[in-house]
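Field reference: sequence -> structure
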Amino acid sequence: MRKKTITQTDPPAKFSTIAGVFIPDVLTILGVIMYLRLGWMVGNAGFAGAVAIILLAKTVTTCTGLSMASLTTNIKIGAGGAYSIISKSLGLEAGGSIGIPLYIAQTLSAALYIIGFTEGWLRIFPGHPPLIVSTLVCVTVLVISYISASFAIRIQYVIMGIIALSLLSVAFMPVASDADFILVGEFEDAGFWEIFAIFFPAVTGIMAGANMSGDLKDPRRSIPAGTLSAIGVTFLIYVTLAYLLAQRISLGELRGNQMAMMDHALWSPLVTAGILAATFSSALGSMVGAPRILQALSAEKSVPFNAIFSKKTANNEPRNATIFTAVIIEIAIVAGNLDTLASLLTMFFLITYGTLNSIVFAQQSMHIISFRPTFKIPRFVSLLGAVSCVGIMFLIDFFFSLVAGAVVIILYIHLARKGLESEWGDIRGGMLLVTAEQISRLAAKFPRHQISWKPDLLIPIDDTKVWGASLLLIRDITRPLGSIFAFTVKNHDVEETEKELKELLLPFNGQKVISASTVIEGESFLSGAKLVIQTLKSGTLRPNTLFLTFGEDEGNDPKIRQLVEIATRYRMGTILLRQHPRMAFGFQQKVNLWIRDKSPNWHLALLIALRLQLNWEGKLNLITVAPEEGEKTRLHHFLEHVNDRARLPFMSEFHVLVGEFHECLNTSPRADVNIFGMSNVVDLDMMRGVAESMNTSCLFIADSGGENAFA
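Structure field:
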């Protein structure tokens, strides 16, 4: 048989659970912190204190590992591990805002491990320059990862064997003569949370396998199995090591000698080899994983220079991203030290872990049908993971936690403005919908109150072509935070009408006004309108005011009267607009509000007048009519009372006009719109006469009974 020739068209090699997840996770977890800081932690906290820190750290990573296992058995994740999971759950903006800090964390992890390697190397060769050693290690790791991930994975088998032998050497170390087993230490060098912050990166290697998601044969199976088994195995190793160190080495030496584990081992060269192997392999794992996050971010155009960093070789290697990552690692090596990097990494990893747990908790709480993971976990697990991450961040460093949160928010806003588009959907809309539904259910328990009134207009539209100018007034009536629901009734060209209706409402985008529209298929406009009002009446966010226009054509008068009657029956306010054919709404500066002291039907009119005055930043004239001169003083006091109770703006003016109502129309102050209360009898002819006398656009308004301008 001829051997198969491998060409560039062959698919790249894929890794199994052991090679692609378990070994990278274990080797990243059993790294520099275990060898160089675990003894110091035991020396300060004692055995019980050290176990408490290990348990707390492992609780966070176990919850996160379980959440990640649940997510990866529900969706097909791509390259980038946690970034891919977050992006496919919360969208590219959230993925990028978390993925960028995650990339930084993975990159700084490599710097942390290289610094740890250098400390171990200097124990053997104390005369070597630390920066030169670190740089050479960085270059070596770069070359290996640059060749291929397969080569890096094969090297890790050898490293795994060396670490196992070093741990056996520690397990058989003799008991020191001054050993003093103490359960709880005195935390002399640092407090509990400071020690936790330094130790936590020792358990964060669970992302090493997830970062290889694009290179796994079966990520849906491999990531849960490999991650959880790595968490369990390393937990046993850490607790056993803590016990051995507390039992066989004095706490004083553990605190003062970072190399105590090496000095007391049965054969110290094995531990030295273990330190070098573990730190080297962890650095290698981060060097392999971090560029893949950067490549995934670049592929979705979430970072600058994405065209360069998104490129891959024929065998799936992100070499441009790898070179850039190596440069960042070298900068971090020059600028940082081991403890500072460890504390910084803790924050970035906690943000990522908290987000992963929150995603699972949100999907579990939503009960959406698309969340069907084959690996199910109780809801309290994801909630515990999310709350623990946030709580621990603030306990470690309150100020830096706020800064880290602000950075994530700023990144999210920046990426949202870029308008990133993905080929997949996400759960953001579902989350918002569920939240809105819950709020709606809660709101339904509380009756609408006058104090929380806002204009929510229902607008029947017969002809979309004549509504352009009226929408300007509707916008100024409803913004901010008001809403409009427009509809029409058609028995033909429904799709075309829907398109016209949506285009008509486009000016409301970005105006802080919620707008929606629909087309009802039917023969009768009135029956369709009645159906809409009846359907919406029981909704929590139902419209509260019917908005209509009328012109010279008296043929529509019966339809308008019936619509007003229907609205009144269902306790909706009514606004009738008679728009001036030439003046429209003038300079949008002055509003005349006409009220009568004997009529209570002016509360909605006053609220609408206030909205216009505020949005126009103009002047409000409060006008009433006195049938005779003797009533003028009393009615002036009436207007003052209304002004005081309604808390009208200070630039409002009062006008008491003497004479018959129709005579006073011509002597009133000039305004861009005049607003009148409307009686129960809809006299459209009278309204046309008023509008003609005023020579302006006019609004005729009837209360629903649910408004109170004094509230």
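Note: The chain has two domains: 17-418, 450-702.
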